[in-house]
Amino acid sequence: MAYSTRSYARSFSNSGGLPPAVKWLLISNVGIYVLGLVLRLQFLSIFALRPVDVVTHFYLWQLVTYMFLHGSIFHILFNMLTLWWFGVDLERMLGTRKFLNFYFFCGVGAGVCVVIGEYLFGNPRGLTIGSSGAIYGILMAYAVLWPDQIISMFGIFPMKMKWFVGIIGAIAFLGAFTPGSGVSDVAHLSGLGFGYIYIKMRRVRGLRFDPIEMARDRYKAWKLARAKKKFQVYLKKNRSQ
């Protein structure tokens, strides 16, 4: 898959090297993969997404760490190339912090959907690895923002971005009804869904839509309210003495 060079395609400003988030996501994913190969490390037992561990043992970190594990060279190659090809322009448009929020919103959201899906219809003891949920979110966001951008599948089949995402979405949907395929189509579909939600709701009543930032602000407000309450209790105790 590659960008088209046709004159009516959107022009890209890829000068100046990779933006920070894409660069460090590439380095961390490839670095962890190579480290596992060279040192023969087994990350799967603790860091892969296993729904039963998340629900019964509260291994909540798996909703993040599974995104940095890949099973084969082709698996990581597809995900990292897609991150490079489409993530660069998305990060430059959103900004580094918001792009990272978007990336983990899609990836963690896909992980949650995998946990629910495996408990309802699959095998909660099965393992899921890969950044495909976040990557598919990037593809959907790109298709929403630049639907008529021409890309070339393997340099052979030129098509608009919106049609390409429609095709991979249809493949993931059909694959979801084929258990035992070894591909987490639930993660792919939910990644597409979360990518669409994020981009479509970037402005809600004039405010920027950023779920992670909203959650962070709510947590800060909760901590402030808790500290205020403790301080009030402390003052009442001192006054009563």
How would you explain this protein's 3D organization?
This protein is mainly alpha-helical and 241 residues long. The chain has two domains: 2-209, Rhomboid-like (Rhomboid-like fold), CATH 1.20.1540.10; 213-241. The protein has ten helices and five strands, in the order βαααααααββααββα. The protein has helices at 20-38, 44-47, 51-56, 62-65, 73-94, 96-121, 132-145, 161-175, 185-200, 211-240; strands at residues 2-3, 150-153, 157-160, 203-204, 207-208. The strands form two sheets. A three-stranded antiparallel β-sheet has the order 1-2-3. It has a two-stranded antiparallel ribbon with strand order 4-5. Strand 2 and strand 3 form a beta hairpin. Helix 5 packs across helix 6 and helix 7 crosses helix 9. The radius of gyration is 21 Å and the shape is globular. It starts with a strand and ends with a helix. Residues 3-15 have low confidence and may be disordered.
Write the layout of secondary structure elements.
Layout: E1 2-3, H1 20-38, H2 44-47, H3 51-56, H4 62-65, H5 73-94, H6 96-121, H7 132-145, E2 150-153, E3 157-160, H8 161-175, H9 185-200, E4 203-204, E5 207-208, H10 211-240
Antiparallel strand pairs: 1-2, 2-3, 4-5
Helix pairs in contact: 1-5, 5-6, 5-7, 6-7, 6-9, 7-8, 7-9, 8-9
CATH topology of the largest domain: Rhomboid-like fold
Largest sheet: 3 strands, antiparallel
Strand content: 5-15%
Shape: globular
Q: What is the name of the CATH class of the largest domain?
A: Mainly Alpha
Order of helices and strands, N to C? EHHHHHHHEEHHEEH
CATH architectural name of the largest domain: Up-down Bundle
| Tally of discrete structural domains | 2
Q: What is the number of helical segments per DSSP (H or I, 4+ residues)?
A: 10
CATH superfamily of the largest domain: Rhomboid-like
Number of strands: 5
Instruction: Catalogue the unreliable spans.
Output: 3-15
Mean pLDDT: 83
Order the strands across the largest sheet as they lie in space. Answer: 1-2-3
In which range does the helix fraction lie?
55-70%
Distance linking N and C termini: 74 Å
